[in-house]
Each structure stands twice: as structure tokens, then as C-alpha cells.
Amino acid sequence: MKIAFIGLGNMGGGMAANLVKAGHKVNAFDLSAEALARAQENGCATFTSVRDAVDGVDAVVSMLPNGSIVDSVFAADVLGHAPKGAILLDCSTIDVDTARKVTADAVAGGYDMVDAPVSGGIAAANGGTLTFMVGGTDTAFARAEPILSAMGKAVIHAGGSGAGQAAKICNNMLLGASMIATCETFAMAEKLGLDLQTFYDISSKASGQNWSMTSYCPVPGVGPTSPADNEYQGGFATALMLKDLKLAMEAAQSVNADVPMGTRAAELYAQFDAAGKGGMDFSAIIQSLKN
Ligand code: NAD
To answer: Quick check: pTM over 0.90?
Structure first.
């Protein structure tokens, strides 16, 4: 297929490269010359405008920073410029309402569209092992699935338009809250004089077990290798967790959901980010809970 890819940053760069490896012809556009140069090295054709990049393609994939950018790029340069009938896939993490609006605009313009945010970070984007949570009609999902499969290990149809974004922020709200609960527990265990490896051996086989503990332990030297073993570098940045928690808070408000743990997680990550820690992995919040 001929696929336009818009937004070749930390995530999109690797994703576009995997589409090329799968045999697709990829037209790349990004505002950053550096991102475009990397895309060219990875076998993409590069363009100086979105309109040129989407000309004559079968599909358009976007991986952009936020909802207002996604909305403006699609409204100004994709809808009415990509061939009618092309399948459109937005893989960015954005708010549910904007995802639904952009899809409604696309459908009105004669396109199929899915919201398909990802779970997994830069390593998964490069390695083609992302998990995609997809919102859209059965027809749109069936068309998007083979494209997403070239970039990920799992592609799950979450429901109608916006359901991918809803699933993503619900998952990440749970992750933020469970990471903080894991961090505060290890900080308290230490103060109570427990050996942390011993506590891990117990809790990882008891009812406190959770992903933040057993797959991504925030304590250096305990559990499988994680960003904690690399001074909290790499992994999933605090600033990105905060972005997702803010989206979760907006979504909770829009449907009047009572989310006390998610709210507290958003407050604590906002404080940690404001303390200049936005670039550290989100498990580094254990440092502030220890003090
Ligand atoms: P990034 O900032 O590295 O990349 C975004 C790219 O979009 C940049 O190259 C930027 O130049 C480009 N861009 C911005 N405005 C543009 C425009 N109008 N037209 C064309 N290009 C434009 O961000 P990222 O880490 O790759 O994240 C992209 C999306 O993926 C975000 O929505 C983020 O929340 C989500 N996400 C990121 C991660 C992660 O670990 N980094 C994990 C899951 C989801």
C-alpha cells in the first residue's frame, strides 16, 4: 500500500520504518527537518507539505503530540486532499471528544477513520511490538488492522469511534495510580525495616501483586530490569504520564465519573513534574514518596 505518515518523532519514526519493512511505500511529513532526515534514512519518501504527502495514498497514519494539532492537520490538509475512500488512522494519544469529532468530519468527507492509540514506548515502536487499542466501525477496523499489525504485536477493537482513546486513558489512569501505590508501599516497607527483595518475593506472590511491581519495579535491583536500574532514564517519561492523567481527568469530568485515586495520581504527578522531574521515568516518583 501507499501510506502517508504524519509525525515521525520518537514514536512515529520507528512506526513508519516498520511500515517500510513490511513492504509499504511510505510518504513522510513532519515539521522537523531532523525527523524527516531520519525517515529518509529508513526508506520513506519525504515531502514538504501534508497535502503533497497524502496525494494519491491508500491510507494516512498520524502520530502527533495532541488533539488540537491532530484536528487542525486533518481539517486543513488531509480531509479533501487525501483520495476519497482512503483509510485514516490516528495513533496519537488525544482526548476522546476530539477523536470523535475528527472521525465524524472524516466520515462526512467520505473516509473511514479509526482512533488507534498505542500502549508501549519508544522501544516497542522501534521493535514493532506496540499494542493498538482501536475505536471505529467494524469496516474501518477491518481496513486498519493489517496496517497496524505491521507496527505492533496486538491490535484490539475497543468499540466505536473514540473507544480506543477511552481504553488508553482508562488503562493509563490505572497504571498511574498503581505505580504510586507500589512506590508508597515499598517506601513504607523500607521504613518498617523490611528487606525490599524479601518483601518483593512475598508481595509478588501475594494479593498485592501488580504490573508496576512485577514488570516495572520502581526499586533498583529488585524484580526484572526496569528504568529504576538505569537511574530512572528511558521508559515512560513522567511528563507523558501527566499528559495522559490530564486527559483522564477531562474524560472523568465529561461523564461525571468519581475517580479519587486517579485524581490523586494526577496531583502527585503534577507536583513531581513541577519539581523538574518531567524527563525521568514515571517510576521515579518513588523518590518523592520516600522523602
Ligand atoms: P514527539 O514529540 O517525539 O513526536 C511528535 C512529532 O510530531 C514531532 O516530530 C513533531 O515535529 C511532529 N509534529 C508536531 N506538529 C506537527 C504538525 N503540525 N505536522 C507534522 N508534524 C508535526 O512525540 P512522541 O513521543 O513520538 O509521541 C507522539 C504521540 O504518541 C503523542 O500523542 C504521545 O502521547 C503518544 N505516545 C507516546 C509514547 C512515548 O513513550 N513517547 C507512548 C505512547 C503514546
So the answer is: yes
